[in-house]
Amino acid sequence: MASPGPTALQRRILDFIAQSMEERGLPPTLREIGSHCGVSSTGSVSYHLRTLERQGLLKLQARSSRGALPRESPFKLPIVGRVGAGGSVIAQEDVEGELAVGKDVARGADFLLRVRGESMTEAGILEGDLVQVRRQREAQDGEVVVALIDESAVVKRLRRRPGGWLLESAHAGYRPIEAPFQVVGKVVGLLRRY
């Protein structure tokens, strides 16, 4: 039989631990948890913490008065197609998969795109990287964007020119793209495996 989720009291305990971590950078003591949540016995607080650990919602460190650490709840970002950074590669509308990431990585990104090619190496974007993309139709001069050109997606730097815009590579061997394009998102970060 599957264990039920946290009770209302246990959710308050989890919220208080998360709040303490965010505000003070360390988890609260058993007494602080009890005081905040209206539980007078540290034994009762310990019971609830062990239950939350069994449910996989936090990790307890032995022999520590501040040993209740929240497990980082992973956010999942979809990995959508492949992005051309060099030769254009058709961006698949199908999701290739999902990647569990921490909230700091997920913040501001709507999806991930895999880079193929070497046209952005001088901007630090390498083949195989996953670029974090925030969906948006407009961007500022100099920002790195994902753009569609004839249904092919590319990662390039957006540049203003007299009479319009162009897409610029970050590699001397590639010419700017002046063909009609549509910005579909702004690159807000990247993930790389070593």
Number of helices: 4
Q: Which range does the strand content fall in?
A: 35-45%
Helical residue percent band: 10-25%
As for the CATH topology of the largest domain, it is Umud Fragment, subunit A
Reported CATH architecture of the largest domain: Ribbon
Detail the poorly predicted runs.
Answer: 88-92
Radius of gyration: 23 Å
* Form type: elongated
Structural class: alpha+beta
CATH superfamily of the largest domain: Umud Fragment, subunit A
Span between N and C termini?
41 Å
How many strands, what sense, and barrel or not for the largest sheet?
Answer: 9 strands, mixed
Would you state the CATH class of the largest domain?
A: Mainly Beta
What is the number of domains?
2
Instruction: Please provide the ordered H/E string of secondary-structure elements.
Output: HHHEEEEEHEEEEEE
Mean pLDDT across the residues is: 85
The counted number of beta strands is 11
Structure report:
This protein is of the alpha+beta class. The protein folds into two domains: 63 residues, Orthogonal Bundle (Arc Repressor Mutant, subunit A); 117 residues, Umud Fragment, subunit A. It is built from four helices and eleven strands, in the order αααβββββαββββββ. Strands 3, 4, 5, 6, 7, 8, 9, 10 and 11 form a nine-stranded mixed sheet that branches. Strands 1-2 form a two-stranded antiparallel ribbon.
